[in-house]
Specification:
four-stranded antiparallel beta sheet, binds adenosine-5'-diphosphate, binds magnesium ion, about 25% strand, 9 helices, Rossmann fold, 10 strands, 2 domains, alpha/beta
C-alpha cells in the first residue's frame, strides 16, 4: 500500500485577525511516510494540524484524504475516516488506570460500552493488552494515570489515539517537555508505529535536532509559509532554514 497519496493539501490559508498563520501551504504525503513539520514557536505548526483535523475552519484552500475532499469537515467526521491527532490531554481520565483508559479508547472505537450482559473485565482485554505492549506501557497497566510520569502520560495519549485504529496520525510536538532520554524513547516508538504498524505519521517539532534520524522528510514552516523541504540533510544545508534556527531572521 506504500506510495499512494494519503494526504494532499492545496493552497491552504488561515489568518487570525491580520496575522497569516497559514500562508498558501501546499503539502502532500504518501502512504507509509514518517515526516515532520518543523519551525520555531509561532511558525504555524499547530494551526496547520488544526486545519487538517477540523478544529479550525480554513479561509481558503483544500484538504484531501485519499482523494476525498474533507475541507472544513467537523473533527468527529474526520476522525471516523481514520485520521487521528495525538496528545490531546482531554482524552485521559486521571482517576482511572492506564489499562482502563486504553480499553475505553478501544471500546469507543468499537462502539461498545460496558453493559450488564458482558462481564466488564473480558471486554477488549486482548486488544488492550496488545496495544499497551506495543507502546511500552504494560508495566504501568494498573497504575492510576494521575501517578504516571510526564513521559508515560504522553505515551498514554499516543496509546489512546491508537485505540481508534487510525491510518494517518498527526503528533503535535510529541516530545514537548521531555528529557533527552524520554525524547529518544518516544521517537523510537513513533518510528516503530510507522515501520511495524504501517501508520502514516506527521509530527511537528520546534527543535530541529530532535527530528534528525527519525523523519525521512522535513518541511520547514516560517511565519505560516513553507520555506524549505527535503531530507534532513538537505534541510540542514539550507541557508534560509539555518538562518531561522540561528535566530538571524525574525
Ligand atoms: P506553532 O504551533 O508553530 O508554535 P501556532 O500555529 O500555534 O504556531 O501559531 C501560529 C500563529 O498563529 C501565532 O502567531 C499564534 O499566536 C497565532 N494563533 C494561533 N492560534 C490562534 C488563535 N486561535 N487565535 C489567534 N491567533 C492564533
Ligand atoms: Mg504548536
Amino acid at each position: 500500500m506504500s506510495g499512494e497519496a494519503i494526504l494532499k493539501v492545496v493552497r491552504l490559508n488561515k489568518s487570525f485577525g491580520g496575522l497569516k498563520a497559514t500562508n498558501d501551504v501546499d503539502y502532500e504525503m504518501t502512504t507509509g511516510e514518517l515526516s515532520a513539520i518543523i519551525g520555531p514557536n509561532g511558525a504555524g505548526k499547530s494551526t496547520f494540524f488544526n486545519l487538517l483535523t477540523g478544529y479550525h475552519k480554513v479561509d481558503s484552500g483544500e484538504v484531501y484524504y485519499k482523494g476525498k475532499d474533507i475541507t472544513n469537515w467537523p473533527p468527529h467526521k474526520i476522525a471516523r475516516l481514520g485520521i487521528t491527532r495525538a496528545f490531546q490531554i482531554s482524552n485521559i481520565y486521571p482517576a482511572l488506570t492506564t489499562y482502563e483508559n486504553t480499553r475505553q479508547a478501544i471500546l469507543t472505537e468499537q462502539n461498545r460500552t460496558l453493559n450488564f450482559f458482558t462481564p466488564a473485565e473480558r471486554l477488549a482485554k486482548k486488544e488492550t493488552l496488545e496495544l499497551l505492549e506495543i507502546t511500552g506501557l504494560s508495566q504501568h497497566a494498573n497504575m492510576i494515570v494521575g501517578n504516571l510520569s510526564q513521559g508515560d502520560k504522553k505515551r498514554l495519549e499516543l496509546t489512546i489515539a491508537l485505540g481508534s485504529k487510525p491510518q494517518l496520525v498527526f503528533l503535535d510536538e510529541p516530545t514537548a517537555g521531555m528529557s533527552g532520554e524520554e525524547t529518544r524513547e518516544t521517537m523510537r516508538l513513533v518510528q516503530r508505529l510507522n515501520q511495524e504498524m504501517g501508520l502514516t505519521i506527521l509530527f511537528t517539532e520546534h527543535d530541529m535536532s530532535v527530528v534528525f534520524g527519525y523523519a525521512r522528510r522535513l518541511t520547514v514552516l516560517h511565519q505560516g509559509t513553507i520555506i524549505a523541504e527535503g531530507t534532513p540533510e538537505e534541510v540542514r544545508a539550507n541557508e534560509r532554514a539555518q538562518k531561522i534556527y540561528l535566530g538571524e531572521e525574525a
